[in-house]
Write a structure and sequence with these properties.
It is built from 13 helices and 9 strands. The protein is an alpha+beta fold. The protein has 2 domains: 122 residues, Orthogonal Bundle (Arc Repressor Mutant, subunit A); 117 residues. Strands 6-5-9-8-7 form a 5-stranded antiparallel sheet. A 4-stranded mixed sheet has the order 1-3-2-4. A hairpin with a 2-residue loop joins strand 5 and strand 6. The longest helix is centred in the N-terminal third of the chain and has 16 residues. The chain is globular. About 6% of the residues have low confidence.
Length: 294
């Protein structure tokens, strides 16, 4: 497998949720695993950063997941990720080529293998199907409040809920994950991309002089999970011609050392035929991960 197929993997996850009778939140990956006859082993990681893994032994399959990080979102996403390796075509064979035991690592992996990217997107589709996310967001406040509510009802991490909100949102919203003074990745809703011609935020690019940059300058803000909010502009973040005002809501993601920023507006997109840069340019520059526990 040379390249990842994120949309296909996400659709496979959504289909498996439906096949197992889940038509509302929360979707239980543990129940799905048990229904498939997969053994589940909660355990502490044997090496730093290992979030879980899957074991193929003849006709028997087992999934183990770390309990070292006490986070329901972390554990649920880990199990859903390993289910991706079980269900997605080509994954078991690719894993068995090297060893019957395959481990996954929490956090943001540089140069992730295609099967890891696909397993992440399978997990996001399984736990946060598009239809359910859109139905939920239709009745929520714009911005971080709606994401908080989605994370709670879906029993997923705040980061996973934020990414899926940006992918499914009917209103303009951008999600940026940063560390120190650098951008790690960003997701923009389709309506946000149409606010103006935008410069995409690339991995490693410096944060603009905004609340987020000042927030990250104080490590205690991130480690303690503090929150802050302020007004910013579309031009400050994305080099746009419009000085459209945005809400900037920031939350530290604890011991992971990352910060989640949500940029949103209730302003409708421009009614223009002018082309807007496509997301493909962004995808070429880096591979974002869902970061199980964040």
């Amino acid at each position: 497998m040379k390249t990842a197929r994120p949309p296909w993997a996400r659709q496979c996850g959504e289909r498996k949720a439906r096949e197992h009778g889940f038509d509302s939140f929360p979707i239980d990956p543990f129940e799905i695993a048990r229904a498939e006859g997969i053994q589940l082993w909660p355990k502490k990681p044997e090496q730093f950063g290992v979030s879980g893994g899957i074991v193929f032994h003849g006709d028997d399959v087992a999934i183990f997941y770390s309990t070292d990080i006490v986070s329901e979102g972390f554990q649920r996403f880990t199990v859903a990720h390993e289910l991706g390796h079980y269900f997605l075509d080509g994954h078991p064979a690719a894993i068995m080529e090297s060893a019957p035991v395959h481990v996954s690592r929490a956090g943001f992996s540089e140069g992730a293998q295609p099967i890891e990217i696909e397993a992440d997107h399978f997990a996001s589709g399984l736990l946060l199907p598009t239809t359910l996310v859109q139905r939920h967001l239709d009745h929520q406040a714009v911005g971080l409040e709606g994401i908080d509510a989605l994370a709670e009802v879906s029993r997923c991490s705040l980061t996973a809920a934020a990414i899926r909100s940006a992918e499914c949102s009917p209103y303009p919203i951008a999600v940026v994950v940063s560390r120190s003074d650098q951008v790690r990745y960003a997701f923009l809703s389709d309506s946000f991309k149409k606010l103006d011609r935008l410069d995409f935020l690339r991995r490693g690019s410096p944060l603009p002089n905004t609340l987020t940059r000042n927030f990250n300058a104080e490590p205690g803000n991130v480690a303690s999970g503090r929150r802050a909010s302020a007004s910013t502009t579309l031009s400050a973040w994305f080099g746009a011609r419009r000085r459209l005002e945005l809400d900037e809501q920031v939350v530290g993601l604890g011991s992971y050392g990352f910060t989640l920023t949500v940029l949103s507006t209730e302003e409708p997109p421009l009614d223009t035929d002018e082309e807007v840069d496509e997301e493909a340019e962004l995808i070429e520059s880096y591979t974002p991960r869902f970061a199980y526990g964040r």
